């Protein structure tokens, strides 16, 4: 967990006035709707901690006089404790809450996907329409030792407890896109919109994994959802055969 992940802005300044040096140490934690800032003011006459909370268009400022005398120990504690509290709260409260919400959304979407008989029938119908053209494509590509899709699956890019086995077999529609021993799918859009594809893992980053043969050699590629697909490429060549995810 990094400071960048927490969207933290740290600031420090030193000013010299008639009463001596004024040192301020500040930190700001923010997200899309909330901003929490704390500033510690240190000078010979005392220590003041100022807390500022901004939520949507509402703002609250709370100055707290910690001491009327300068105390290095108190100054250090005032600087460390708020930051530590924010970091611990983020790690033990916010992250688990986000994971719980994400899991609920994914499980609901997965259940809807599995129960969507209309979408399943549509994919089956499309594959049936493509089978004739795909058989011809495979025959032609086999004769010229061209591009043959052995297996293609589309689903969650990262596999964990919530996305395990959320994959859609798209071997047939992917082979149907092969022309003259080449496969090119433009980038910029989700591949779920391609003919014969659909979204098996909503709310997750997705990828297309393809195992294919070209010039009699096995190749493997994993392409993120919004990037273009260009096959074949020499860098995809592998020695062995990958198992289906």
TrEMBL record:
Transmembrane segments: 70-93
InterPro entries noted in UniProt: DnaJ-like_C11_C, Mito_inner_membrane_organizer
UniProt keyword Membrane present: yes
Keyword entries, A-Z: Chaperone, Membrane, Transmembrane, Transmembrane helix
Sequence ranges assigned to domain DnaJ-like protein C11 C-terminal in this UniProt record: 113-232
GO terms classed as biological process: cristae formation
A single cellular component GO annotation: mitochondrion
Protein name: DnaJ-like protein C11 C-terminal domain-containing protein
